[in-house]
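User: Hello, beginner here. Can you help me understand these amino acid letters and fold codes? It all follows right here:
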Amino acid sequence: MDGQLRWLVTGASSGLGAAVAEAAIARGDEVIATARDAARLDRLVSRAADRVRAVELDLSDPVGARATIADIARAGIDVLVNNAGYGLIGAFEEATDGQLREAFEVNLFGGLELTRALLPFMRERSWGRIVQMSSIVGVTSGLGGAAYAGPKAALEAVSDSIAAEVAPFGIHLTIVEPGAFRTDFGGRSLRLTDQLPEYRSIVGPPRNAFLAHHGTQRGNPARAAQAILDAVLSPQPPRRLPLGPDAFGVLRAHYTARLSELDALEPTAAVTDYLGS
């Protein structure tokens, strides 16, 4: 669609969310930017005070967030970027019920509620773009990643269904799968479980390696944001958008291994039909 668009970018106070919001502002669009603390959006608002609206939104409090979401929906959003979220690293057994539920609330259900709230406006206009910020671990998980990969994998599965349902209305959904980018994800936005001694030698090494990598990632958020805008605003946006060379390497290795396993199992595991009387 030509002309000025109105974006909603959640988790816009830093990282990829802030970079996408800045790219949208540079394009000349309007942006509704959300964060748990609206004061953290002051720098973004200063970029274009007449086109940026800062909104406080805490997706970990679904009841409290509902009125804010309804208000945003009335503004009429052309492009939704569900970026708000945080990482949670630790062995599954280490994660408390509260930690797991909050991770799913913020990283999955919050974005889905926003999507549902904004779809009527997009259907009415027969045009819309939805960006679901996932991760390469939404496809492939590993040691210590269950609490973060779980909601991201669910987000990908639900989003595939949504994409098929809304395509006839001129609405396109893109699932973004970033690799490692130099953001606060490995710092302020990261939470850790309390370690159990039994898992220290198993989950401890990859956890420590992830923490040590913070601040040295090769991925540039500004370039990622531009790639997202280019893909999302194209006539036929991709269903999935891996970001960064490491993302393509990890995903290709994962899919290749899955296909090899599928081929190896087929001769015995696929022979399960009724073969006659």
User: Anything to note?
Assistant: The first strand starts at residue 6 and ends at 9. The first helix runs from residue 15 to 26. Residues 6-246 form a domain with the Rossmann fold fold (CATH 3.40.50.720).
